[in-house]
Amino acid sequence: MSSLWDELIHELGTVRALSAAALEARSESSRVALITLLDAETAEISAILDQILRDARQRAEAQQSSAA
Q: What is the pTM of this model?
């Protein structure tokens, strides 16, 4: 689980850097390329969050069944 959080933090940092670069981009083509990368990074973040939620649900279910 910790590695997922580490990966999430890394992806969020990447999004911040890409966002800043997109704001400073001098050409439209550079801006479009950076926004395309942002889209891919946000998809990665979504996948990581989905995995974190699945893991949390599985842990909660395991705790409930062991407590019963």
A: 0.84
Question: In angstroms, rounded to a whole number, what is the distance separating the alpha carbons of residues 12 and 2?
Answer: 15
Residue closest to 22 by CA, chosen among 42, 46, 48: 42
Task: Report the C-alpha gap between 10 and 7 in whole angstroms.
Answer: 5
CA distance 64 to 48: 24
| The two three-digit tokens of residue 7, written as one number | 């990966």
Q: Kindly report, residue by residue over 1-37, the tens digit of the pLDDT.
A: 689 999 999 999 999 999 999 999 999 999 999 999 9
**How many whole angstroms separate alpha carbon 33 and alpha carbon 35?**
5
